[in-house]
Amino acid sequence: MAEQKPLAAVQAALAAEHAVVYGYGVVGARVPAAREAEARAAYDAHRARRDALRRTVTDLGGTPVAAEAAYALPFAVPDSAAAVRLAADLEDRVAAVYADLVRAATADLRRDAAGWLREAAVRAVRWRGESVAFPGLAERAADPASASPSA
User: By CB count within 10 A, which of 13, 45, 57, 142 is most buried?
Assistant: First the structure.
C-alpha cells in the first residue's frame, strides 16, 4: 500500500507532463520570435522530465500512463500573447501536480519533486512576469479547476 500512493502521484505527474509537452507544441507555434528559445528550452525540459517519470513509474512497478492523442487547451491560443499566457498556465498546472507528488513521496523522490516544482514556478514567473505565493498551492485554493493537469 505504501508504494501505491507515490506511484499514483508519479503517474499523475507523468500524465501532466504529457499534457505540458503537447501544450508547448502550441506555444512554440505562436510564441513571439524573441521567446522562441525560451519555449524550446521549456519544451525540451518537459520532454526530459516526462521520460524520467516514465522510468520512475517502471521502477515503482507500474506501467507508465500513455499520452493522449490530443489535449483540450484551457483557452484559445490565436496569437503570441495567448501563447505566453498558455505557457505560464502550463507551468502553474504542472507545479500543482508536483506539489501533490511532494506530499506523496519520500526521500529522493520528494527532493526531486520539490526541485521540479521550483523549476515550474520559475518558468511560470518568467512567462507571466510576476510570481505567486506558494506556487502549486495558492492557485488551487482560489480555483481548484486550475490544478487540472489537462492542457
Answer: 13
Residues 5-44: pLDDT tens digits?
899 999 999 999 999 999 999 999 999 999 999 999 999 9
What is this structure's pTM? 0.84
Rg over alpha carbons for the chain, rounded to the nearest Å, is 15
Q: Give the architecture (CATH level 2) of 4-147.
A: Up-down Bundle (1.20)
| pLDDT one-digit tens code per residue, 45-92 | 999 999 999 999 999 999 999 999 999 999 999 999 999 999 999 999
- Domain spans of the chain? 4-147
What letters, b where the CB count within 10 A reaches 16 and e where it falls short, cover 52-87?
ebbebbeeeebebbeeeeebebbeebeeeebbbbbb
